[in-house]
């Protein structure tokens, strides 16, 4: 059986109000999220879950500030840009064989063009939703796939774009399934590791969402949360929320397995 090593790569922090993180809870609270990519390596595969926010954070931060206020702006430490994080693992974007995008947002898709050799893997459901939806209160086109990234995906990168089925396999021991909850393009990435199955996703922001069965507040479908969290609890040995700052306490140095 193929197994993989997994490392989490911190990419920046931002604060969100309580009801965004926990459904109908913490109305007077704010929580700091740590946005992360997951680096998956083994058996000739070097996969990356999300490419991180752009080098220039201002366009994204301007939008976040407009919606939530200045406290929501992303703060990135030196060395947390995706290229620098890969370099810390002796990798360049050209070494990456697969990029998985979940969801389709500025903080996940902005650096796709750097990965010239990778399959670009994204939910077919999310792709169809993006191209068939003219107005949506949550999935704004410009903040889902900006024009420059969209042009790249449908021209130069199109031969490498892989639209994922609801249940799919990228390689033996590396699977995805459509989870929804957060966005129409949200998936769970399951990785067989020496420590068991790791379930990596944005459908849950922090571990408490799954362990305490508290849906994220900014969910698009409460029933998807109930279903997805139950499946993760039943099938995963290691739950990996992509925005949980406690991941670095659970996994020192970001190393999951």
Tell me what you see in this structure.
This protein is of the alpha/beta class. Helix content is about 25%, strand content about 25%. It has ten helices and eleven strands. The chain has helices at about 20, 60-70, 80-85, 105-110, 125-130, 140-145, 145-155, 205-210, 220-235, 245-250, and strands at about 5-15, 30-40, 45-50, 100, 120-125, 160-165, 165-170, 175-180, 185-195, 195-200, 240. The strands form two sheets. The protein has a six-stranded mixed β-sheet. Strand 2 (about 30-40) and strand 3 (about 45-50) form a beta hairpin. It is globular.
Provide the fold topology.
Layout: E1 5-17, H1 18-21, E2 30-42, E3 45-49, H2 58-68, H3 82-87, E4 98-100, H4 106-109, E5 119-123, H5 124-132, H6 141-144, H7 147-154, E6 161-164, E7 167-171, E8 174-178, E9 187-193, E10 196-201, H8 207-211, H9 222-235, E11 238-241, H10 247-250
Highlighted features:
alpha/beta, 257 residues, globular, 6-stranded mixed beta sheet, 5-stranded mixed beta sheet
Mean pLDDT across every amino acid position = 97
- Uncertain runs: none
Report helical residue fraction.
Answer: 25-40%
Distance between the termini: 15 Å
Order of helices and strands: EHEEHHEHEHHHEEEEEHHEH
Number-wise, the strands total 11
Tell me the radius of gyration: 17 Å
Number of helices: 10
Strand content: 25-35%
Shape summary: globular
Helix-and-strand structural type: alpha/beta
Largest sheet: 6 strands, mixed
Strand order of the largest sheet: 1-2-3-4-5-6
